[in-house]
């Protein structure tokens, strides 16, 4: 009813009966019209009571009936435990109705569900009949239980559908299905077989007994079964012989030759005997019949498959043979018989029991071969040769000087080449076409004809070389083209195996061939001529040989043997040196080639060069000495085993277990594979280029003012030795530092969340800080340096940023920063750091690389040193963050610097520093981005792990810091740049620049970073 | 007849169904262990010819077995890619070390029975910790180019022979790897009793004796057939002779120094898979594909 009503639109207020309308319902009705006017996503589904039943997944889900329960008042209550002591827990029969709800019930329409164990086509009567039948049988059978077994014990299976079908077809229980005709046929055949066996038993004397017995047994068996069949007239219940062959179902190879069956059985029995004798009790038939030749004695697990491993590799060849034999026999059963009775076969001419027909029905009709006409030629000859085949025989035309006209010469040359390649046809065509053209008169015997003929011949010689060679070779190596032959034709060098015999082709020829082959595709490097005349290493024939080999390798395509032929004795360095030598020589040759082909002078020059190179590369010991050592080495290497030594790093536990001190104890873990690193470096190169201009632009903007430097006197910093006084505001909580040092997992999570916890940790952190001071003083120093050269958020900025600043003297120059703290423990470290520092170039920001780590440090130290003298903590952390974010934003290239806008250009002198600083920032950012949220690259994970511990700590501090900053920055920037894409772009920028940074080699100052790079 | 060689058959240990793949004396030579294609390990008293115990758990053939010096634990490996760490007396598997990607060919305890070193068809040698609960290998050595056939341990070294033709010595003390390239697939390696020499059986039917300190080839022993099966070789207890089986069922004895065949006789009907020499006496056990283990005495 309600449903119906909802389909209507109501105008006016319906008259309501007080009793059946709740207020809610009324409201629902009132809303109905209103709802429908709403857009779909604002409409709400309500039940008939007007209640809202669907909520969002997070606001309650579907709340039908009992809210979020199973639909009962009690909800989902586990079955109560009932003690079986007092009252036995009743077995609750579950019915399907317990799993159906009202709707399902309704759908069922009152029909009850029931399961049935039977699928009874013919109804219940069949089962009944079967039962009766069983009862009848039961009576016949003697049984321990007297009388008929109760119905519920004996439950005979209902008749199969097949049986029922047979019954339908007229078959009656207790009758045979066999055709009656088949019986007689079978009988006849059996008789025949008997007779045959009688015959054949004469033949194979030793087997008589066996045959007899088996045969008689078999006959008896069949007899019996036949009798059974006859007497009962029913089909045999079960076929006892499982299928063991590979024939199709029901196929009997011996159907019409039952005598062979006996043979086969006999044979199998013999094999089995042998098996037993050999002592494989389980017999291989079981396994062998499955597949292949498998190890005897045991199978494999049910879940495993026969595998190669299971093959009986130890099995003797005899066994293999037998197996094969049986298989053969199965395929062609007649064969063995034929073998066995070959003698008789020959004597009688036929199988026993048969005789030769006097006149065979089947005569092969033979025809005479066709008469070949006398004028037939087996090889087709073309009436006109495709190409003037006489080119080899024809006397080459006399050399003719080229025509004076250069154009004509070029034309002739070009055409000659074309014709040589494309055939005579082309010449004819062009002749036809350019009849009128006087330029082409040379074709038809005009000006330059002689030259053309000559040129054409030359080209043909050149071009025809290849086919000619091929022809020759293929003719010589007919009839079959072997792989070697083909290789020879192609000029391939045989692989190492046949190096000894490779002399069959002269290397020169090979080169010639090769160059011929490659001529069409590459520049002609007919080095053969050269290598003939030019022997740069004449003094050392072995070396010369190697050089030739090298040349071959260099200019030859295809497979090549490793360059070892007779350099075995040489050390690697020698080989490398020689190779360099050869390269140089080859280059010279090539140059000489390019310049003047036959200029002997150039060759001379080359020789000289080569010799020089020789001197240059070969140590002053001279050739002889080299030779000798070479020989010695040869001798040594002849005695294998060759011994090589490598470093191998046993794992510490292994050493421990072997009770040996780890030889690598305390040494850094092996470097991770450098490959990925190399790749990244490679990939960065091009992308960094386009970033360059943007960067410079940024640099200018980046120049942050260090305008207002405030010196806080209250600090207990010992500032007298320090050129640069600084006040480090207690900007940050030490949590990051703390974490960096005392937690060893490199991934940092929830940076901001951590901040909230800071308070609890602060006490611990304080303690840690003290210890830390010492550790990180060096870093701190460096960061100081960085800060000095760096932007400091000025007082100019308003808001929270203003309150705390890093204060540096304006003169923050480059050079040494000597800082000493009241904390004496840090003294040593400081010095160290100082030295470290001084090693670097004085261009300010060198130390910046370490910078960030120090940032995190600074508050701790400050606290330690300042001990509460510092201004109260307020927004300080935020401040530093913002400062840093400021930096990062500015480094983002396209984005504007929030702070520097009004200060742009104020401190151009610091540009340089800032740039370096920016580098720093990039790297920092990169790291932070990788370690913090979105783009974590495995790469950075690597570097984190691989760094040494101290380093790691600091870097982790850094990265942690940075991740925070990064996030912070992003948050901030989002407000400035509402579009997401923008932010992403910026990130990309960072990354790219970072790459650039990493790639930059000029910046030697960033020694620390260089170190990092190594690990990246 | 050469004095001191175990030429008399003193007993046949029968029980394995199918090929016996390895037989090993225990540390003091009173017992021996055999393993084979029937997936069992068997513990024997070879001197009295008694079968003591059978260890069943392997899912495939067992290829090698080794026993701790204190006779309390066994380690075995085989075609099921696992290494089984057994308790000798109860016959239970204490631990299984899984990790080899393929069949495990050889396995050994270290001196303190704290580490098991295994060599496998997966071209690796792995070391496993018996002391901790970890079933992960301590270290994986995978510098081999081919199946590692045999592994030997000294106090501070792991030596392994591989089909890639190398015998690699991993010196834990120095932290280096020595590679002796034999140029022939190495089937089995065994150390001389003074551990100064290494006998390597190569698949070119040659045994090669190396000086371990220099890597120098000291001698080659030929005459037997060893071309396709994994067969063991060893030196006699006095280091005076070298012995190995042959694929035709023969046992060969060579003089260590002049490499002449001192004695050979037919011991088995089929391939002699393993020979093991008593640590002190002149007593040898051999196993074969014919399913028997034979004990030879002087």
UniProtKB/TrEMBL annotation, chain A:
It comes from the Eukaryota. Residues 411-453 form the SURP motif domain. InterPro entries: DUF1604, G_patch_dom, Surp, SWAP/Surp_sf. PROSITE patterns: G_PATCH (PS50174), SURP (PS50128). GO terms for molecular function: RNA binding. GO terms for cellular component: nucleus. Residues 899-916, 940-958, 978-1008 have a biased composition (Basic and acidic residues). The keyword RNA-binding applies. Functions as a component of microRNA (miRNA) and small interfering RNA (siRNA) biogenesis. May assist Dicer-like (DCL) proteins to efficiently process and/or recruit the precursors of miRNAs and siRNAs. PANTHER family: G PATCH DOMAIN-CONTAINING PROTEIN 1. This is G patch domain-containing protein TGH homolog. It comes from Dioscorea zingiberensis.
From TrEMBL, chain B:
PROSITE patterns: WD_REPEATS_2 (PS50082), WD_REPEATS_REGION (PS50294). One of its GO terms (biological process) is mRNA splicing, via spliceosome. Keywords: Cytoplasm, Repeat, WD repeat. It holds the Pfam family WD40. GO terms for cellular component: catalytic step 2 spliceosome; cytoplasm. The keyword Repeat applies. It is found in: Cytoplasm. Gene3D superfamilies: YVTN repeat-like/Quinoprotein amine dehydrogenase. SUPFAM superfamilies: WD40 repeat-like (SSF50978). Coiled coil: none annotated. The keyword Membrane does not apply. WD repeats lie at residues 13-54, 55-96, 97-138, 265-298. Belongs to the WD repeat MORG1 family. This is WD repeat domain-containing protein 83.
């Amino acid at each position: 009813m309600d449903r119906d009503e909802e389909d209507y639109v109501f105008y006016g207020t319906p008259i309501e009966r007080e009793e059946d309308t709740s207020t809610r319902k009324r409201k629902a009705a009132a809303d109905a019209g209103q709802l429908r006017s709403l857009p779909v996503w604002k409409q709400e589904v309500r039940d008939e009571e007007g209640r809202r039943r669907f909520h969002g997944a997070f606001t309650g889900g579907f709340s039908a009936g009992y809210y979020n329960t199973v639909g009962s008042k009690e909800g989902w209550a586990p079955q109560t435990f009932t003690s079986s002591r007092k009252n036995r827990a009743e077995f609750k029969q579950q019915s399907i109705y317990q799993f159906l709800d009202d709707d399902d019930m309704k759908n069922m329409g009152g029909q009850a569900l029931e399961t049935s164990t039977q699928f009874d086509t013919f109804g219940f009567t069949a089962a009944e009949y079967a039962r009766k039948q069983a009862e009848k049988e039961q009576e016949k059978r003697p049984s321990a239980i007297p009388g008929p077994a109760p119905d519920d014990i004996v439950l005979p299976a209902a008749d199969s559908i097949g049986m029922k079908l047979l019954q339908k077809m007229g078959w009656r229980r207790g009758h045979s299905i066999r055709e009656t005709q088949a019986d007689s046929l079978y009988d006849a055949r059996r008789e025949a077989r008997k007779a045959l066996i009688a015959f054949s038993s004469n033949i194979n004397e030793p087997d008589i007994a066996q045959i007899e017995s088996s045969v008689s047994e078999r006959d008896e068996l069949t007899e019996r079964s036949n009798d059974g069949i006859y007497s009962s007239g029913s089909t045999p219940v079960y076929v006892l012989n499982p299928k063991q062959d590979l024939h199709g179902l029901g196929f009997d190879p011996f159907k019409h030759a039952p005598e062979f069956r006996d043979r086969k059985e006999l044979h199998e029995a013999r094999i089995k005997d042998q098996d037993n004798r050999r002592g494989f009790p389980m017999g291989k038939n079981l396994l062998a019949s499955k597949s292949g030749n498998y190890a005897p004695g045991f199978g494999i697990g049910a879940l495993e498959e026969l595998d190669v491993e299971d093959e009986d590799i130890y099995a003797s060849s005899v066994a293999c043979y037998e197996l094969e034999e049986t298989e053969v026999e199965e395929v062609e059963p007649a064969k063995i018989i034929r073998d066995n009775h070959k003698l008789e076969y020959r004597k009688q001419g036929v199988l026993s029991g048969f005789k030769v027909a006097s006149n065979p029905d089947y005569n092969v009709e033979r025809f005479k071969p066709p008469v070949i006409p006398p004028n037939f030629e087996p090889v087709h000859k073309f009436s006109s040769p495709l190409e003037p085949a006489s080119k080899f025989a024809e006397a080459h035309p006399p050399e003719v000087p080229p025509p004076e006209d250069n154009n004509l010469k070029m034309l002739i040359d070009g055409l000659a080449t074309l014709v040589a390649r494309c055939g005579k046809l082309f010449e004819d065509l062009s002749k036809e076409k350019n009849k009128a053209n006087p330029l082409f008169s040379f074709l038809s015997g005009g000006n330059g004809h002689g030259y053309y003929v000559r040129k054409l011949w030359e080209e043909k010689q050149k071009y025809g070389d290849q086919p000619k060679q091929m022809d020759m070779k293929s003719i010589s190596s007919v009839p079959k083209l072997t792989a070697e032959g083909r290789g020879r034709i192609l000029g391939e060098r045989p692989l190492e195996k046949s190096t000894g015999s490779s002399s069959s082709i002269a290397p020169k020829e090979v080169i010639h061939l090769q160059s011929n082959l490659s001529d069409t595709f590459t520049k002609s490097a007919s080095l053969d001529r050269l290598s003939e005349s030019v022997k740069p290493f004449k003094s050392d024939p072995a070396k010369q040989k190697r050089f030739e080999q090298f040349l071959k390798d260099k200019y030859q395509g295809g497979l090549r043997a490793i360059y070892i032929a007779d350099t075995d004795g040489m050390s690697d360095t020698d080989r490398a040196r020689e190779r360099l030598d050869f390269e140089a020589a080859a280059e010279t040759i090539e140059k000489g080639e390019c310049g003047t082909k036959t200029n002997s002078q150039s060759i001379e020059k080359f020789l000289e060069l080569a010799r020089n190179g020789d001197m240059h590369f070969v140590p002053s010991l001279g050739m002889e000495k080299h030779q000798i050592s070479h020989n010695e080495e040869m001798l040594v290497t002849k005695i294998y085993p060759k011994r090589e030594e490598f470093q191998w790093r046993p794992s510490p536990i292994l050493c421990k277990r072997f009770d040996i001190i780890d030889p690598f104890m305390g040494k850094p873990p092996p470097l991770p594979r450098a490959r990925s690193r190399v790749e990244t470096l490679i990939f960065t190169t091009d992308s960094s280029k386009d970033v360059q201009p943007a960067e410079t632009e940024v640099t200018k903007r980046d120049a942050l003012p260090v305008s207002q430097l405030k010196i806080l006197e209250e600090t207990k910093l010992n500032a007298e030795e320090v050129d640069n006084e600084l006040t480090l505001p207690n900007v940050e909580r030490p949590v990051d530092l703390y974490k960096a040092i005392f937690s060893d997992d490199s991934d940092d999570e929830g940076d901001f969340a951590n901040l909230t916890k800071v308070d609890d940790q602060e006490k611990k952190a304080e303690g840690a800080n003290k210890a830390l001071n010492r550790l990180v003083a060096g870093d701190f120093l460096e960061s100081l340096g960085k800060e000095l050269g760096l932007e400091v958020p000025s007082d100019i900025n308003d808001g929270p940023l203003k309150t705390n600043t890093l204060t540096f003297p304006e003169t923050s120059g480059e050079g040494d920063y000597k800082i000493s703290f009241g904390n004496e423990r840090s003294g040593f470290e400081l010095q160290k750091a100082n030295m470290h520092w001084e090693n670097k170039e004085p261009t300010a920001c060198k130390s910046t690389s370490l910078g960030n780590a120090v940032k995190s440090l600074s508050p701790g130290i400050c606290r330690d040193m300042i001990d509460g003298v510092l201004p109260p903590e307020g927004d300080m952390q935020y401040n530093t963050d913002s400062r840093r974010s400021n930096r990062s934003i500015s480094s983002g290239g396209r984005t504007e610097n929030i702070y520097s806008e009004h200060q742009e250009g104020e401190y151009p002198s610091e540009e340089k520093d800032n740039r370096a600083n920016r580098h720093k920032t990039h790297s920092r950012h990169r790291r932070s981005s990788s370690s913090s949220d979105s783009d974590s690259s495995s790469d950075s994970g690597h570097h984190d792990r691989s760094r040494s511990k101290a380093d790691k700590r600091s870097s982790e501090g850094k990265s942690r810091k940075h991740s925070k900053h990064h996030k912070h920055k992003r948050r901030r920037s989002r407000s400035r740049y509402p579009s997401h894409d923008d932010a992403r772009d910026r990130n990309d920028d960072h990354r790219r620049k970072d790459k650039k940074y990493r790639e930059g080699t000029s910046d030697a100052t960033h020694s620390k970073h260089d170190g990092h790079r190594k690990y990246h | 007849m050469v004095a001191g060689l175990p030429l008399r058959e003193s007993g046949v240990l029968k029980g394995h169904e199918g090929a016996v793949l390895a037989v090993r004396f225990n540390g003091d030579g009173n017992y021996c262990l055999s393993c084979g294609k029937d997936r069992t390990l068997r513990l024997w008293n070879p001197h009295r010819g008694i079968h003591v115990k059978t260890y069943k758990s392997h899912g495939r053939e067992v290829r090698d077995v080794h026993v701790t010096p204190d006779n309390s634990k066994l380690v075995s490996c085989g075609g099921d890619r696992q290494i089984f760490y057994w308790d000798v007396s109860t016959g239970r598997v204490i631990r299984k070390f899984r990790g080899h990607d393929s069949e495990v060919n050889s396995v050994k305890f270290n001196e303190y029975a704290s580490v098991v070193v295994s060599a496998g068809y997966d071209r690796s040698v792995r070391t496993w910790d018996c002391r901790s609960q970890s079933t992960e290998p301590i270290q994986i050595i995978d510098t081999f180019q081919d199946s590692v056939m045999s592994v030997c341990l000294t106090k501070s070294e792991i030596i392994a022979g591989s089909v890639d033709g190398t015998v690699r010595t991993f010196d834990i003390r120095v932290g280096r790897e020595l590679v002796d390239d034999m140029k022939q697939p190495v089937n089995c390696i065994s150390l001389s009793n003074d551990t100064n020499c290494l006998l390597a059986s190569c698949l070119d039917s040659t045994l090669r004796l190396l000086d371990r300190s220099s890597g120098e080839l000291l001698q080659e022993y030929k005459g037997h057939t060893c071309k396709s099966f994994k067969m063991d070789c060893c030196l006699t207890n006095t280091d005076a002779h070298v012995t190995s089986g042959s694929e035709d069922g023969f046992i060969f004895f060579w003089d260590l120094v002049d490499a002449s065949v001192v004695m050979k006789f037919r011991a088995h009907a089929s391939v002699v898979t393993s020979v093991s020499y008593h640590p002190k006496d002149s007593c040898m056990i051999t196993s074969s594909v014919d399913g028997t283990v034979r004990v030879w005495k002087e």
